[in-house]
Amino acid sequence: MTDVTKADPDADGLQGMEHTKQYDFRLPETYFYRSEKGLDRRVVEKISYFKQEPEWMLQFRLRALEIAEKKGPPKWGPDLSGLRFENIYFYIRPNERQGTVDSWDEIPEEVRETYRRLGVPEAEQRVLAGVGAQYESEMVYHKLKEEWEKKGVIFLDTDTGLKEHPEVFKEYFSTVVPPEDNYYAAVNSAVWSGGSFVYVPEGVEVGVPLQAYFLLNAQSIGQFERTLIIGAPGSKFHYIEGCTAPAYTTDAFHSGVIEIIAQDNSQVRYSTIQNWSHNVYNLVTQRALVHAGASMGWLDGNLGSKVTMKYPSCYLVGEHAHGEVLSIAFAGDGQHQDAGSKMIHAAPHTTSSVVSKSISKGSGRSSYRGLVQIHDGAVGARSNVECDALLLDDTAKTDTYPYIEINEKTAHVGHEATVSKLDDEQIFYLMSRGLAEDEAMALIVRGFLDPVAKELPLEYAVELNRLIELEMEGSVG
Amino acid sequence: MATLAQNPALSPEAVEQIVERYQEPAWLAEERRAAMRSYQAQPFPTSRDERWRYTQLRRFALDGLERVQQPADTSVSERIRMRITDSDAEGVLVHKGNEVVHREAAIHEQGVVFTDLRSALRDHEALVREHLYKVVNATQSKYAALNAALWENGTFVYVPRDVEVALPLGAFTTADRGGVGLGRTLVVVEPNAKLTYLDEFTSDPFDERLFYDAATEIVLKDGAKLRYVSLQNWSRNVAHINKLRAHVGRDARLESLTVSLGADAARAEVECRLDGPGAESEMLGLYFADKGQHFNQYTLQHHAADHAHSDLLFKGAARDASASVYSGIIVVDPGAQKTDAYQTNRNLLLDAESEAVSIPQLEIGANDVRCSHGSTTGPVPEDQRFYLMSRGLSPEVAEHVLVTGFLYEVTSRVTLPKVAEYVERVVQAKLGVPGVREKL
């Protein structure tokens, strides 16, 4: 989190202080049920019991646990040695009423206070389609605008989705990210709780973004949200998830799985900006199955957390499917952002594009890790990847690890990466125009991120800019 | 997943045999024994090792092979004679098995040493001892350890301070029997000296399988200049691994070219470490895989000092169910400010059964740098082919022209015209351009 050490803030500093107060908060903990620390069969059975799940889900969880135990953590990538399962609570249900509530007034004051600081009500006032917010491991508030409900759009927390739409749920759940996929997906499959369940029926366009907030608020709890999004043929919508977590004293663990199915000719966008506090291990699997003529866009912003490993992927399985990843990462002191993308071209005339922008500062390290795979028979597939890295000072680090595997003669694949530092001349020019050095730096950084930021809805772009300003504080001197 | 088996012929006893046979000095015997321990301690690479992930490891298997010692006969083949004549080399060594079967040394410059490593140990022991194993050593890989423990012969080149060797020196390695062949090259260029060196591997086809494990150590002192060409055109019964590593001093310049055309499977590891400000390394690579060949290129541009410059261009093509892998990394150490480092890999896929993998990587620990990398893979551009065909060229000829043109970006930067010409000729012969043979 931001380090504000100024004892006697001047007028400039005050603005920053306000931001800090707004995001750096923690409310008292009150719990209904908290699992034992660590991960074993009993914990998984208890989760399923408290959720009153169907038998198949319990069996699924137990199988996933076995797979996780067999697989073990990956041996590549960032240092995860600080992450110890035996110190983590894998399930906590907050002391609130279970299920959804219809109006904002029914939300407990404590939680509303949290959201107020996040700006959720204001966001709702700006005619967002619905607000689903996850407080720790359970959805507590849910509202979907009536006009969308009438068209058959489902936007629920995942637990409720399982109860109310068991057939749709069972048909698609775990088809995109099976527990066998990777260790953290297996852990998530065993202990998942909460997340969003979205179904947009055939031909329906949702004009304003669907939005959900997640936050962590107890020490050492794991948050394992499981999001399942289905865009029926010809549908079009934008799902947004934001994460802001308060600061903690011990390391927390977040490992979500997001599965998206973009059916024929649908257009799905998923945007997320995570700002977990700097002790969170954020290990997320995000994957979309993109069918013929469909288009899938991931916008992935990684500002917070201690270590992030996140590679949004598109499996382009139908002809003319299109996948896109826009990725921004900010690695401040002590942070390692290991982000990237995967584009699997398994059908003819599929196209993909990846733009990654990363900024490293202090002891921060940002890595781009990506895979472009063109399968034999993916005639005319095209993929282009661009990675730009900005280093703010001489201790920051950046890496690029793109993997390009091509089995198809007619494919065109390109990859480019550049690394640069803040340009002294640009800073000098801006300062000659009257900007302070930190303002000049922030302006250049915002300009660097602009190609990604401009793809965000306005309120998110504003929030992104504020968060970048917070991260940039103390960059000078 | 392929696993590779240990080979009993590559054992500590083999080390003792070599030490005994050549009455080697104690320091070298100790180095060999340590390398053998390291070899035995290291597991064979698997496809789970990042550096070997796309390597078809079975094709580099050692099991069942004996060490190559005596060649079947010590004559110099027509192929080698042609290459010698064609290369303009002033000094020539021909290695076959553990023997030097031909030697021409008309070097006029004072103090230059160009001889086989075995003779160098006898005549220039101090020089060899000072530099051997300092650049390529047993800890770097299983195959480097094998070479360090069991090499029997190789080439030693030494150019004293301020001496410029006008014409190229060349070592030609050939073979006529199967087994495990091990050759080692040590090139030392003293401050402000200058050398052009050609390291070529070629053979006529023979029945048995040969695994050739080469190690090349290059030391460039401050201000030294070296043009180094590594040209691999083995017959198809050979698997080839070459670790070529250079330490480049202040204001020194290395221009390297690594060409992979022959063998069944070949892995070229080309590494440079830029140790002083002003050091420069130009790394060119060219590969053309056909008829099921498997080529693997691994490159490292390690900027250990500030104000150094490296520029890499590797281009290759694959056809007839072949596979090429390019994996390269630029590492910029913390403090290596004002680094300029570039890396480009371009691949041409000529048929649907072939495969190209490209992994250009960066690890940057300093901020005031200019670093970039780029990679492209694609077919022969359709519009260009169409244009050539509209001018009356057949589809085959159009492809020949376009592949040659694609690789020309590399061959045109080679400052040795005879080498560039030969490479183009081999490529055209592989493409099946009528009337072109390798000119044997």
Task: Characterise the protein shown here.
Chain A is α/β, with parallel strands linked by helices and 477 residues long. Chain A is built from twelve helices and 24 strands. The radius of gyration of chain A is 22 Å and the shape is globular. In chain A, 53% of the residues are buried. In chain B, 23% of the residues lie in helices and 38% in strands. In chain B, strands 2-1-5-7-9-11-13-15-17-19 form a ten-stranded mixed beta sheet, covered by helices on one side. The radius of gyration of chain B is 21 Å and the shape is globular. In chain B, helix 2 (26-41) packs antiparallel against helix 6 (142-150), helix 7 (382-390) packs across helix 8 and helix 8 runs antiparallel to helix 9 (417-431). In chain B, strand 1 (91-96) and strand 2 form a beta hairpin. Chain B has helices spanning 12-21, 26-41, 78-87, 117-123, 125-131, 142-150, 382-390, 395-411, 417-431, and strands at residues 91-96, 99-105, 113-116, 153-159, 169-174, 179-189, 194-202, 210-220, 225-233, 238-248, 253-260, 265-274, 280-289, 294-303, 309-318, 323-332, 340-349, 355-364, 370-378.
